[in-house]
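Hey team,

Filing this mostly as a record. A colleague (T.K.) asked me to run one chain through the structure pipeline before their review meeting, and I want the input and output archived in the tracker in case anyone asks later how it was produced. No errors, nothing strange. Just documentation.

Input sequence:
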Amino acid sequence: MINRVVLVGRLVRDPELRRTTTGTAVCSFTIAVDNRMKAVDGAKSASFLPCVAWTQLADNVAKFARKGMLVGVEGRLNQRSFERKDGTKGNIIEIICDSVQFLEPKSAGADENPIDDNYIDQAPEVGKNLDSIDIPDDDLPF
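Output structure:
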């Protein structure tokens, strides 16, 4: 059986870091992923997917990820049941993360920007003779 998930989306809110009774770090966060299909009225829609990271990965996500940040998540789907405070039962499907990649540079300040503008200016012109292709965003698969 194969159970693998690879998603790219934006954090809906800041990650929440907790510790188990044994001290293991667990970080919960939700990402918004655009749906390919538009709604009946033509508006774009998104799926909001809960994610969970454990141990060192949980610490890193809580330390470096913030609301609105673009992240790549790789992991597996997990379904679990729980009982609410009012006694009713609920089910949840969540992504148990094996890897979380931060896909945008840190925007804390200009001094921390890892991109050297002089290096970009000296880069060779690759593909200079290629014609440009205009593709509407709606036709892209992501």
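Quick notes for T.K.: The radius of gyration is 20 Å. Confidence is low (pLDDT under 50) at residues 108-130.
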